[in-house]
């Protein structure tokens, strides 16, 4: 039994609005066109679908079945049209990806691989702190973003995929008592002056939470939004900071004490996030796949 999709769409519109006149106005055709197409659908089904009651319409039992299945069919067609257009966008569209301030060390190789694979797709990187970035993804202002998530802390309404996981290291002045060790217990830093990133950074929240769980009141003496400045202050003897392992490769560790934090061991996990309630474009999926291929090898914990 072939069914005209346009007739099905006009029928659904009529049922939703409860009127041939209103349906005609909504789809910009005449009322006679709506009536003709609905009658055509009834002929195709072989049963009356609507009971005309003055200016209002009501569904027959068969009409209710056609309406409910019609909604599903039209939804599938709409999704098909969206995905077809979306695939075309890979050749000429643009994608904006949210990026955390500390993530710039991780993504150049992924950006290069993405541009090589999709040379005509414009990639824009929008830098935001983790909490603001999460809010923008939830609100639909960003389709996908990268952020640092605390263990078990994926916000409601978001899905996440880990990109890289690294251990957190203590970085302190060369004269620190634990200089020369490979590891340092969190409790050994109990009385150390601490210089931390601003509280908007998940790294800081992770470290402070660990101190609280250990029953230790951290002695924070300074904060900054720049990790390299924290390292410079540590080298100047102002206190101890905390950085994920890959950042150490960008420091002159000869002037610093560096040790992996243990008891408890602390991890820093960089993850992509996207909304579970919205359609994810092929461009965004392509970005996620490229990052998984290129950056998935970066997961590393416990070694330098």
UniProtKB/TrEMBL annotation:
<keyword id="KW-0238">DNA-binding</keyword>
<dbReference type="InterPro" id="IPR036390">
    <property type="entry name" value="WH_DNA-bd_sf"/>
</dbReference>
<dbReference type="Pfam" id="PF03466">
    <property type="entry name" value="LysR_substrate"/>
</dbReference>
<dbReference type="InterPro" id="IPR000847">
    <property type="entry name" value="LysR_HTH_N"/>
</dbReference>
<dbReference type="Pfam" id="PF00126">
    <property type="entry name" value="HTH_1"/>
</dbReference>
<keyword id="KW-0805">Transcription regulation</keyword>
<dbReference type="InterPro" id="IPR036388">
    <property type="entry name" value="WH-like_DNA-bd_sf"/>
</dbReference>
<dbReference type="InterPro" id="IPR005119">
    <property type="entry name" value="LysR_subst-bd"/>
</dbReference>
<protein>
    <submittedName>
        <fullName>LysR family transcriptional regulator</fullName>
    </submittedName>
</protein>
<keyword id="KW-0804">Transcription</keyword>
<dbReference type="InterPro" id="IPR050950">
    <property type="entry name" value="HTH-type_LysR_regulators"/>
</dbReference>
<comment type="similarity">
    <text>Belongs to the LysR transcriptional regulatory family.</text>
</comment>
<feature type="domain" description="HTH lysR-type">
    <location>
        <begin position="3"/>
        <end position="60"/>
    </location>
</feature>
């Amino acid at each position: 039994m072939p069914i005209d999709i346009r007739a099905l769409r006009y029928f659904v519109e009529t049922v939703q609005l409860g009127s041939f006149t209103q349906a005609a106005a909504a789809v910009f055709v005449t009322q006679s066109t709506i009536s003709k197409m609905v009658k055509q659908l009834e002929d195709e089904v072989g049963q009356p679908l609507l009971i005309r009651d003055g200016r209002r319409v009501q569904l027959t039992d068969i009409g209710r079945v056609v309406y409910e299945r019609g909604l599903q069919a039209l939804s599938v067609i709409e999704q098909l049209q969206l995905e077809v257009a979306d695939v075309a966008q890979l050749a000429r569209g643009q994608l904006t990806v949210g990026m955390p301030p500390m993530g710039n060390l991780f993504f150049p190789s992924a950006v290069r691989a993405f541009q090589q694979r999709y040379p005509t797709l414009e990639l824009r990187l929008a830098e935001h702190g983790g909490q603001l970035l999460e809010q923008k993804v939830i609100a639909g202002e960003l389709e996908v973003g990268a952020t640092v998530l605390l263990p078990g802390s994926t916000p409601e309404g978001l899905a996440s995929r880990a990109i890289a996981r690294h251990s957190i290291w203590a970085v302190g002045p060369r004269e620190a008592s634990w200089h020369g060790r490979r590891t340092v217990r969190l409790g050994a830093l109990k009385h150390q002056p601490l210089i931390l990133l601003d509280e908007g950074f998940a790294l800081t929240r992770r470290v402070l939470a660990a101190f609280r769980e250990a029953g230790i009141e951290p002695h924070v003496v300074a904060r900054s939004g720049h990790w390299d400045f924290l390292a410079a202050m540590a080298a100047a003897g102002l206190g101890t900071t905390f950085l994920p392992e890959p950042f150490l490769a960008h420091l002159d560790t000869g002037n610093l004490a560096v040790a992996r934090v243990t008891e408890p061991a602390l991890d820093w996990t960089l993850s992509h996030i996207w909304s579970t309630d919205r359609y994810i474009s092929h461009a965004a999926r392509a970005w996620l796949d490229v990052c998984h291929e290129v950056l998935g090898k970066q997961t590393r914990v416990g070694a330098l």
